[in-house]
Write a structure and sequence with these properties.
This protein is of the alpha/beta class. It is built from 9 helices and 5 strands. The radius of gyration is 17 Å and the shape is globular. The two termini are 27 Å apart. The structure holds 3'-deoxy-3'-aminothymidine monophosphate and magnesium ion. 3'-deoxy-3'-aminothymidine monophosphate (NYM) binds next to helix 5.
């Protein structure tokens, strides 16, 4: 039997450097002969993802519950691909996952963390969540947010508080306020360790 790949998730507020780091990890893993694939949620390429994209770009409005469920559906529609890649030995480096789903919706008025978690219960459980953090000062040094929905300081502060509430034993908080290269080196060695530790373990189910 071949060793399975790992499911490694990156979480953090907008502009924390997740996408840059995920892509650098993929390049390095492949260069070192590992099978690795980058996935990102929301996956804006599917039909559901296109709807999410219009919502984020403010070209359509949706009820807050409805958009929450669409984000979740956008993950469920990927799980067959995800599981089969992992079982064939490919490590998935995932840019946002269900934790973003919960943290962003629960930042809105009238939503509990518990309600927000329900639709994602049972998704594949990450072997590790790297949570990239930046102080508000470090964030503002990175320049302004774009004009997508949620890219405002008060929302990002609430999202960061929610991430703290979602942290469990599989999370590692990483201070992202360092150079791209230094952060990459740190993450690469952590990722290699996770791959080593998880290859003989069964993949779990999220929040069960
Ligand atoms: N987002 C992302 C959610 O609100 N719920 C989710 O389930 C996910 C995966 O989408 N501001 C939000 C967080 C981001 C926005 O993501 C787009 P990105 O990584 O900026 O493309
Ligand atoms: Mg963004």
């Amino acid at each position: 039997m071949i060793d399975r790949g790992s499911l490694i998730v990156f979480e953090g507020c907008d502009r924390s450097g997740k996408t840059t780091q995920c892509n650098k990890l993929i390049t390095q893993l492949e260069a070192d002969g590992h099978k690795a694939k980058y996935l990102k949620f929301p996956d804006r390429t599917t039909k559901i993802g296109q709807l999410i994209n219009s919502y984020l770009g403010q070209s359509c409005d949706l009820d807050d519950h409805a958009i929450h469920l669409l984000y979740s559906a956008n993950r469920w529609e990927a799980i067959h691909t995800m599981k089969s890649l992992i079982n064939q030995g490919t490590t998935l480096i995932v840019d946002r996952y269900a934790y973003s789903g919960v943290a962003y919706t629960a930042a809105k008025e009238g939503f509990t963390l518990d309600w927000c978690k329900q639709p994602d219960i049972g998704l594949p459980q990450p072997d590790k969540v790297f949570y990239l953090t930046l102080s508000s000062e470090a964030l503002s040094r990175r320049g302004g947010f774009g004009d997508e929905r949620y890219e405002k300081k008060d929302i990002q502060d609430k999202v960061a508080q929610n991430f703290q509430k979602l942290k469990d034993g599989d999370w590692e908080e990483i201070d992202a306020d360092k150079s791209v290269e230094d952060l990459h080196r740190e993450l690469y060695s952590r990722v290699k360790q996770v791959m080593e530790d998880s290859k003989k373990k069964a993949l779990g189910k999220l929040w069960t």
